[in-house]
Amino acid sequence: MANQTYNPYDNAKAQFDKVAEMLKLDEATRDLLRAHRQELHFTFPVKMDDGSTKIFKGFRMIHNDARGPGKGGIRFHPHETADTVRALSMWMTWKCAVVDIPLGGSKGGVICDPRTMSLAEQERLCRAYMRRLHSQVGYNVDVPAPDVMTNGQHMMWMLDEYESITGQRFPGMITGKPVGLGGSLGRTEATGYGVIYCLRECLKNMKIDITKTSASIQGFGNVAEYAARMYADLGGKVAAVSCWNVADKTAYTFRKEGGCDPAELAAIKDSFGSIDKDKAIALGYELLPGDAWLSQDVDILIPAALENQITPENFPQISKQVKILCEAANGPTTPDCDKLIQDAGIMLIPDFLSNAGGVTCSYFEQVQGNMNYFWTKEEVLEKLEKIMTGAFQNVYSLAEEKNLYMRDAAYVVAINRVVNSVKARGWV
Ligand code: NAD
């Protein structure tokens, strides 16, 4: 569960303010980029299977669309808040800018728990959400995608509702669709692989042999699973993996002598990224408390679950052996940890750079949809690798050249690009 004492929007603003000050941005530009171009908050009814009607609360926000249409996922989560959506849409602006794709930042969410809803209820919820949203989204306005606890099926229901209302086909209005139904090959793997392309480049720059490294990962959902698979494929040892257990309402860390096998764990997880603990034990995994992933003696930590997971309170649990903190989730580290990370000499790969592979592949999905011509998986991954490698090395060189903390360097690259755009448009 996310640490509730930290507000992600305050975190996002604090990170922006620090770099806005470094860049000496004028007041109007700061005001523009601290706020959102558009915020939608709404409620909508959904008929439940037992005949009752439940009222859900939904959000969709565009932080900034100066560089292109808004782009950002839709999260289904019982703890979703307006400020989470504000923060995540702001991070999407920087994410698209840091990898230099022509899209802006947006995000959506619904306060709900799909784990406790039938598929029919989830379909009605997706359609009702899109009925409220249809006039504010579109391939050239704002393009949604899956995120925490949403998937390709949810996107198809939303697309179908949108196309039923508009009476036309708009394959580019939503991404993360299943392959064969307008989706791009490689999208499932893209975010996790992108994380590891950055990590691989970072290790290369630090002259560390990946095959001699070990990593501990928080989460085993879409991002974490494919990050774990690629890291293991490159020869790294996945020392531990943690995830949420729905039935026990707690998280567990799974550890195995000799390293976890990502494919083996993937075979015993459910669609929400929860590993079956009994099956894991039967396969020889040791079961540790949920937060044990943080204190493992490893070279690399990869938080890939939720925001606000590493705080000054639990920072001392991090092993002295850790050399790289590779943020795969959005906002997994609170801003008051940044100084601790720097002082500990830990190399940071910041979230909006590291996990930009997902949005980059979503962009590819839009491009392919608009052309009505789809690339092979090899072509998609090759293009993804090129963009992620280039973006990482660009940020890394700036950090080296100006002696900047990696998060600040990534912000400098992203904010400069967005500022150029808003100024060229005459917004400030
Ligand atoms: P997901 O829903 O597929 O998986 C989330 C994982 O986190 C699950 O394994 C769940 O069990 C685990 N988890 C939840 N609470 C936990 C806890 N307290 N301790 C340990 N594990 C816990 O989500 P995802 O798509 O993999 O996204 C993970 C993160 O990456 C989120 O921050 C998301 O915003 C971000 N992200 C996702 C994408 C994408 O393409 N999916 C792209 C960019 C960023």
Question: Which properties best describe this structure?
Answer:
428 residues, alpha/beta, five-stranded mixed sheet, 12 strands, binds nicotinamide-adenine-dinucleotide
Report on this model:
The structure is a single chain. The chain has 428 residues and is an alpha/beta fold. 43% of the residues lie in helices and 18% in strands. Helix 1 packs parallel to helix 3, helix 1 crosses helix 14 and helix 12 packs across helix 13. The longest helix has 26 residues. The protein is globular and about 55 Å long. The model has no long low-confidence stretch (mean pLDDT 96). The structure holds nicotinamide-adenine-dinucleotide. The site of nicotinamide-adenine-dinucleotide has 28 residues, from helix 7 and strand 7.
Named once each, the bound ligands are: nicotinamide-adenine-dinucleotide
Supply Rg: 20 Å
Helix content: 40-55%
- Summarize the biggest pleated sheet: 7 strands, mixed
pLDDT < 50 stretches: none
What is the string of helix and strand elements?
A: HHEEEHEHEHHEHEEHHEEEHEHHHH
Could you tell me the strand content as a percent range?
15-25%
Label the overall shape. Answer: globular
Distance between the termini: 39 Å
How many H/I helical runs?
14
Number of strands: 12
